[in-house]
Design brief:
Number of domains: 1
Largest sheet: 6 strands, parallel
CATH class: Alpha Beta
Number of strands: 6
Helix content: 25-40%
Order of helices and strands: EHEHHEHEHEEH
Distance between the termini: 12 Å
CATH topology: Rossmann fold
CATH superfamily: Flavodoxin domain
CATH architecture: 3-Layer(aba) Sandwich
Shape: globular
Structural class: alpha/beta
């Protein structure tokens, strides 16, 4: 069954990590559909019904994004708030996300040490994982790479991208 990758990066062309992740996913062919929120909705005015219909078509959904100020990007938070609506994703009649597998794929600008001194990346992503679990989803392990703003070598990012695609295929 194909998998949906919802990408929330405001400047994909300037992102080494997210760009190479998407290039690697393209090698998987029809196994993966990449859906870039900023490309589809540059004004961030989501077509809620269309997005809900899209999510309904997939059993596994990956949310790919950079960490901004120790949080998910605004567009992703807005998307979740609007698309995973009461009565659709949770609450009475809201079982459309139930049973779906969710994976997060996050890149950080800061190096790994920035996320080990008190608040881990997993801690920062807890609101996301709890929200998906509340909707009845199974949350799979997060794929991650640290240090995007610290001169990562392209070969290291490519190796990480291969790990990412392998995790999606598993």
């Amino acid at each position: 069954m194909p998998k949906l990758v919802v990408v929330t990066h405001p400047n994909l062309n300037q992102s080494l990590v997210n760009r190479l992740w998407i290039e690697e996913l393209a090698n998987l062919g029809e196994v993966v559909k990449v859906h870039s929120l900023y490309e589809k909705y540059p004004d961030l005015k989501f077509d809620i019904q269309a997005e809900q219909e899209l999510l309904s078509q997939y059993d596994e959904i990956i949310f790919q994004f950079p960490i901004h100020w120790f949080n998910v990007p605004y567009a992703l938070k807005k998307y979740i708030d609007e698309v995973l609506a009461y009565g659709w994703a949770f609450g009475p009649g809201g079982e459309n996300m139930k049973g779906k597998k969710i994976r997060l794929a996050a890149s950080t600008g800061g190096d790994k040490a920035a996320y080990e001194g008190g608040v881990s990346l997993d801690d920062l992503l807890k609101p996301m994982t709890i929200s998906f679990k509340f909707c009845g989803c199974e949350v799979l392990p997060t794929h991650r790479i640290y240090g995007a703003s610290h001169g990562l070598e392209e070969e290291a990012v490519k190796a990480n991208a291969k790990e990412y695609s392998s995790a999606i295929l598993a």
